[in-house]
TrEMBL record:
GO molecular function, one term: glycosyltransferase activity
NCBIfam families per the UniProt record, alphabetical: PRK12324.1-4
Transmembrane segments: 103-123, 143-167, 225-245, 266-287, 299-316, 336-353
Acidic residues compositional bias, start-end: 20-31
Location, primary (coarse class): membrane
Entry EC no(s): 2.4.2.45
Its membrane topology: Multi-pass membrane protein
Membrane found in the keyword field: yes
Pfam families: UbiA
The name this protein goes by in its record: Decaprenyl-phosphate phosphoribosyltransferase
Low complexity: bias regions: 32-41
Length: 354
């Protein structure tokens, strides 16, 4: 009997020990789980801390009078003033570029057109400030970066325009009309027409045409129909080539493009620049025949057709390859194109001045 009681007591003791061990194990497990949760939470907080700086916006640019003035000048795009050399084309082809008075008027037209064009750039960047801030590279433009406040950009644009308009009266009051028309057309482009297909091509192309017209108006030189045709379709050729390069870049890389390009196809733009190139070559050839008659049947106008046509075809190679996004860069980098351009200018100089 005593032995049975002792065995029962031992069994109860073993059961109690087993229960205590289970409770201890459960306690250890429960303690380990919060520790594991804490470690995972700490790791998640660390990852969030590492990712947080990437989501923070770029710090605002410091403002100051000097920085703002430099920002305005940068937004005026002085590099684009090279386009305004087109004002010298009319005096050159009229054999008047060596005339001191004509040259001064052309220089005034160059300066006036540069100021007016800069006013358009300022307004365009002020309008597109929000879109530029979301762009990976345009966000560094002075207005988008906050260096130049939007109201200051509008004020500077008015100053640039009035300065250019006032300067134009020194050459010819009719030059002010050309500049006014240019400003109105370009503002229409800035305020919405740039999103309209075909219209945007015509407006951008008209900018080059108006530069050539401005040179003739400033110096009071009549412009022939052939001169206007060559200038107009040469402008359309370059603009359509530029848009074609942009859409080819989009198709290759998926890069962000202007909204109007979404309504174009590569084949359509190819058709436009090919048509413009054909009319450009034909118009220049007919102009060369006219120059030959006016220059006592000189052979040089006919010779000028050779470098001109080859230069157009050479530039078309860049357009066809989708690398004509920046025409001025192509002209500055392509040595063969530069040589062809020099030969063309020399043949015309011999035609007009010898």
């Amino acid at each position: 009997m005593t032995k049975s009681v002792n065995e029962a007591a031992e069994a109860a003791h073993d059961t109690a020990d087993t229960a205590e061990a289970a409770e201890a194990e459960n306690a250890d497990t429960e303690a380990a789980e919060p520790a594991q949760d804490s470690a995972e939470a700490a790791e998640a907080r660390a990852e969030a801390a590492d990712a947080e700086p990437e989501q923070q916006p770029a710090p605002a640019a410091k403002r100051g009078p000097v920085r703002m003035v430099l920002g305005v000048l940068k937004t005026a795009r002085p590099r684009q003033w090279a386009k305004n050399v087109l004002v010298f084309v009319a005096p050159f082809t009229a054999a008047q570029i060596t005339n001191g008075g004509v040259l001064v008027d052309a220089l005034i037209a160059f300066a006036a057109f540069s100021l007016v064009a800069s006013s358009v750039y300022l307004i365009n960047d002020a309008i597109d400030v929000e879109a530029d801030r979301a762009h990976p590279t345009k966000r560094n433009r002075p207005i988008a970066a906050g260096i130049v406040p939007v109201p200051a950009a509008y004020v500077a644009a008015v100053v640039f325009f009035l300065a250019g308009l006032g300067l134009s009266f020194l050459a010819n009051p009719q030059l002010a009309i050309v500049l006014g028309v240019y400003e109105a057309v370009q503002l229409g482009y800035c305020f919405g027409l740039k999103h309209q297909p075909v219209i945007d091509l015509a407006i951008v192309g008209s900018g080059f045409l108006m530069r050539a017209i401005a040179g003739g108006v400033a110096a009071n030189i009549p412009l022939s129909q052939w001169f206007l045709l060559v200038t107009a379709f040469g402008s359309l050729f370059m603009v359509a080539g530029k848009r074609y390069a942009e859409i080819m870049l989009f198709e290759r890389t998926g890069a962000k493009i202007r909204s109007s390009l979404k309504k174009y196809s590569a084949s359509y733009l190819r058709f436009v620049w090919a048509t413009a190139a054909a009319i450009l070559i034909m118009s220049y050839s007919l102009w060369a025949f006219t120059l030959r008659e006016d220059s006592h049947h000189s052979i040089w106008p006919m010779i000028s057709m050779v470098p001109f046509v080859i230069a157009v075809l050479r530039y078309a190679v860049d357009v066809d390859g989708g690398t004509a996004g920046e025409p001025e860069e192509i002209v500055l980098k392509d040595r063969i194109l530069q040589i062809l351009g020099m030969l063309w200018v020399v043949t015309l100089a011999v035609t007009f001045y010898l």
